[in-house]
Amino acid sequence: MSGQLNWYKATIYPGINIAMIAANPRRALGAFIRAHRERLPPPAAFSGRRRTPGFRREELAEACGVSATWITWLEQGRDVSASPHALARLAEALRLASAERSYLFTLAGKRDPAEPAPATDDLPPEVLALPERMTIPAYLLDRTWTARSWNSLAAELFNGWLDGDHDRNQLRFIFLSSRAPRLIANWDDRARRIVAEFRADFSCRLHDQTLLALVDDLIDRSAVFERLWQEQSVLAREGGERRFIDPPRRFYQSTLIVSSNPDIRLVSLTPL
User: Fold this and answer.
1) DSSP H or E stretch at residue 59
2) Does 247 lie in the same domain as 137?
3) 48-65, pLDDT tens digit by residue?
4) In the listed set 49, 81, 107, which residue is the last one of a domain according to the structure?
């Protein structure tokens, strides 16, 4: 439990006595709303200078048709009622993208009842064999973004992660390995997007102790991950072009969800 509390302390309320912090999604919800409120440009009707960036709470309340008190209490992490319709208006007022909107509803406990299948560590041999049957670099990632199987082409491409005797977690490779910035082109941009995509996955498993421990470990060991995690960005996974530096190569990445276990993703890279 200490890891979970450390995560909340470091990402939601830094500086507050850890004994005062409960591992409560409402606090994460409050921090998320506040961060996105402060990112909004001032209302068009406003002119002049202001002390704080973004919308004021009163302006956000007016934009989504609720009271300023309700917004304040949400940001403070209080146990207040939030109907799906009110949350929808809030998401629209905050101009959230689809993944960010899903994250908001999950933290509020109002997410669509279609939940992912329960996580399992056991995979059928037929699933584990999928990468080996492909003629392009391919690997399987589980819910913790750990590679469960991969082919030789992927091992050759991801030197320092899928070759040799390395930690197979993709996030630890990207943020803790000195090899990653020398291998992945535009590493800063990719790292930012990776964290935002991982937060979208994490939002579906807020009480998963394995994921909480992973986030806690990355925060402790990577200042870059900690900074990006605190940005509260949420993005859906996308394919697209991936560039590698050493040696220079270009691929198109595709990600497929395994129907028998939606926590497992098959990632393939087609040479360009």
Assistant:
1) helix 57-64
2) yes
3) 666 677 888 999 999 888
4) 107
